[in-house]
Amino acid sequence: MIPLSAQLKGVPLFSSLSDEQLDMISRTGALKRYPRGHLVVQQSSPGDTFYVVVSGCVKVTLLSKDGKEIILSVLKNSDFFGELSLMDNEPRSANVIVAEDSTLFQLTQKQFHQLITTYPDILKKVMKELCTRLRRADEKIGGLAFLDAYGRTISVVLQLAHERGIKTKNGIEISYAPTHQELSNMVGVSRETITRIIKVLKENKTLISYRGRKVVLRRYPESMQYEF
What distance in Å separates the CA atoms of residue 181 and residue 211, rounded to the nearest whole number? Predict the structure, then answer.
């Protein structure tokens, strides 16, 4: 079994730390496994834990008044969450649900504060990621305001390709992709609408396939390019 310190070494958040420092951190925190569907963080509840995704993926969601799930983002291996409540002592701003069986590294609020105080570089990386997420939120708000359902769907797929796409001979492969229902929750339209849009994307050769948790993207619309 791979030691926890070795697993944390591959997490960008901890990349500046030495093996000895990683070993100390791994002994400080806790490693826990969660099954798909488990509610890790509940919106409006007190926040006292910081999480790093060691394996698997989780989805960050909100619930509308009528109980409809809205997916804000999907976090995968090496991503982190739970830092906001630990920094401002406010309740959790969203739900976090395990999308695939996942292993999470956890630090209490006290341990997290000690970590960022001892290693200022980690705090800088946390702040940089928060800025990135804020920019994405701005883009998403703009998309909701100015793009139609087709445009918003393409925007979400492109963002997924940018975040976790891998170049292959067949195209850009996206693992841990959202299901049609989850994509509809991210875009803000019905599942039937997403199914029709995906069909169009396949017909115009933008998408090669969209099956289960894997998407293969052939090309990008000329007006929406991402660099890899």
Answer: 12
Give yes or no for a contact between 214 and 173, defined as CB atoms under 8 angstroms apart. yes
- Going by C-alpha positions, the residue among 182, 188, 177 that lies closest to residue 144 is 188
DSSP conformation letters of the chain:
---HHHHHHTSGGGTTS-HHHHHHHHHHSEEEEE-TT-EEE-TTS---EEEEEEEEEEEEEEE-TTS-EEEEEEE-TT-EE-HHHHHH-PPPSSEEEEEEEEEEEEEEHHHHHHHHHH-HHHHHHHHHHHHHHHHHHHHHHHHHHH--HHHHHHHHHHHHHHHHEEEETTEEEEESPPPHHHHHHHHTS-HHHHHHHHHHHHHTTSEEEEETTEEEE----TTS----
Encode pLDDT of 170-206 as tens digits: 888 887 788 888 888 888 888 899 999 988 888 888 7
| Degrees, nearest 5: CA angle 201-74-125 | 125
The pTM for the full model equals 0.71
96, burial (CB in 10 Å: exposed 0-12, middle 13-18, buried 19+): buried
Q: Let me know: does 5 contact 28? Beta carbons within 8 Å.
A: no
136-171 tens-digit pLDDT: 777 777 666 667 888 888 888 888 888 778 888 888
